[in-house]
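Structure tokens please, single chain.
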Amino acid sequence: MKKKLAFALLIALSISCGGAQLVIRNIDNTARKLQTKNGHFEMTEYTAEPKYGYTMDYPINLGFDNERNNPRNVDYFFKALAGPNGEEIQWKKIDTCCPFPSIKSSTGAGTLEIYEVTFGNQTLTFYVNLFERSKIVCPIGLTIKKD
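Here you go.
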């Protein structure tokens, strides 16, 4: 029964998201999870990929611990970042979209979360995947916060 419900949910979300199946292009489930320090990931690298985080097919893949820990990983990620000139950033989840099959979800389907990041008068929108992994790096438009 649970699988039928998950399948129905996946179909409904697919239709509401335009019907196209999401293909995430930057998954690397062998990537190591970053260590944390002072409540954030110890990030040291910047991406060279301009799409990283800004599009559905190149989301920020934070990996999977368990479904209850996912919000903590989002906080660890964004707390490691600052605006382009070191400004404090604020982030908030604004939507969920883009279903895809995932064995790492209790429902059999994963989704992307959409976050708005603001600093000064600027707002950036990022896609975050909490089900798959890839190397976690700083997206273009932000900097790594100095401790």
